[in-house]
Amino acid sequence: MNFFKLKSTWTNAEFIPLKLCIAAAYLIIGTYFHAFFEHYYFLLGIIFGITMIWCVALWLRKMKQDNPPSDQDKL
């Protein structure tokens, strides 16, 4: 049984605790290593900007594939 090949569906509401957990971990790490990351704000900002644009583009492409335009949308 391969754990990584199992499929499950999650609703958005079920992701809220996971997102809160990850956000709390980021805050803890950010406050603990504040002085270290202070030197890399510009680089981290560039990485964030690129990955944000990339994720939005992937999301829009997926939305277009899953929801093809109907005849009513063209009016």
Describe this structure as you would to a colleague.
- The protein contains three helices and no strands.
- By secondary structure, it is an all-alpha fold.
- It has one domain (12-66).
- The longest helix is centred in the last third of the chain and has 26 residues, at 41-66.
- The chain is extended, with a radius of gyration of 19 Å.
- The mean pLDDT is 79.
What is the C-alpha radius of gyration, as a whole number of Å?
A: 19 Å
Structural class label = mainly alpha
Shape: extended
**Unreliable stretches:** none
Q: Helices and strands, in N-to-C order?
A: HHH
Helix content: 55-70%
Total domain modules: 1
Distance between the termini: 50 Å
Number of DSSP strand runs: 0
Note the total helix count: 3
Described by strand count, sense and barrel closure, the largest sheet is: none
Mean pLDDT: 79
**Percent in strands:** under 5%
Keywords: Membrane, Transmembrane, Transmembrane helix
Transmembrane segments: 12-33, 39-60
Short description:
This protein has helices at 12-32, 34-37, 41-66. With 75 residues, it is mainly alpha-helical.
Please give the structural blueprint.
Layout lengths: L11 H21 L1 H4 L3 H26 L9
Question: Which key features would you list for this structure?
Answer:
mainly alpha, transmembrane helix, 3 helices, membrane, transmembrane, about 80 residues
